[in-house]
Amino acid sequence: MPDHEHGTSGPNGGHGAGAASGGRGDGSGEPGLSRGRHETPEERADRRWGELIQEIRVAQTGVQILFGFLLTVVFTPRFVDLGSAERQLYILTVVLGAAATGALIGPVSFHRIVSGRRIKPQTVEWASRLTFTGLLLLLATMIAALALVLRVATHDPFVPWLVSGVAAWYLICWFVLPMWARHRYTTRD
After folding, report:
1. Which end is more exposed in the chain, N or C (fewer Cβ atoms within 10 Å of the end residue's Cβ)?
2. 175, exposed or middle or buried, with CB in 10 Å at 0-12, 13-18, 19+?
3. Is the pTM of this model over 0.85?
4. Measured between alpha carbons, how far is 11 from 38 in angstroms, rounded to an integer?
5. Do residues 133 and 103 lie in contact, with contact meaning Cβ atoms separated by under 8 Å?
6. 189 vs 186: CA distance, rounded Å
7. Would you state the pLDDT for residue 35?
8. Cα distance between residue 80 and residue 82, in whole Å
9. What's the CA gap between 109 and 127, in Å, rounded?
10. What is the reported pLDDT for 120?
């Protein structure tokens, strides 16, 4: 995602050079058309890495709590009473949770292994891809976990509809709204 889309402010509280004058940062003085910061590739990679790590911290916490809970379910007395379909859904949910955990912890390992090799821009790109993959896997994990819990709690025919509604809500919050904002606020006339 280009830097001008983040909407974060620079070190002096502005949005890059020219922000204080309302200009584009290119000396034209045209109001409202600031196109971002004037950063070296290294500065940009450092800033993007810091932003990415903050995002990963939020997602990692959620996936680790969910995955930890899922691992304990098999040891509960009620687990032996689950039917074949519920057991298969449980296994799918645990595998998805493990994959999400791996993808969301992957950027840390990636950074540690390549640290000091002067490839931070490439590291940020790969870490970003791993994080996005982890978010998709977390979405799938949460949907599968919700389906499992509701299926065990009730065998009513409304369960698939309820799960579909929650999945749609996740998609709107996590992907549709950000993509809409990205398109609306970064597309030029």
Report:
1. C
2. middle
3. no
4. 12
5. yes
6. 10
7. 62
8. 6
9. 10
10. 92
- The amino acid sitting at 83 is G
Q: What is the pLDDT along the chain (189 residues), one digit of tens a residue?
A: 444 444 443 433 333 433 333 333 444 444 444 567 899 988 999 999 999 999 999 998 989 999 999 999 999 999 999 999 999 999 999 999 999 999 999 999 999 999 889 999 999 999 999 999 999 999 999 999 999 999 999 989 999 999 999 999 999 999 999 999 999 999 765
110: exposed, middle or buried (C-beta count within 10 Å: 0-12, 13-18, 19+)? middle
Tokens linked to 92? 């799918």
Residue 52 is encoded by which pair of tokens?
């990415």
Q: Which residues contact 54 (CB under 8 A, 6 or more apart)?
A: none
Q: Name the residue ranges covered by the structural domains of the chain.
A: 1-38, 42-183
Tokens, residue 181? 């904002």
Q: What distance in Å separates the CA atoms of residue 8 and residue 37, rounded to the nearest whole number?
A: 10
**Residues in contact with 186: Cβ distance below 8 Å, sequence separation at least 6, in sequence order:** 2, 4, 5
Q: Which two tokens stand for residue 96?
A: 């998805």
Only one residue has tokens 């982890």, namely: 134
Q: Which residues contact 102 (CB under 8 A, 6 or more apart)?
A: 134
What is the DSSP code (8-state) at residue 118?
A: S
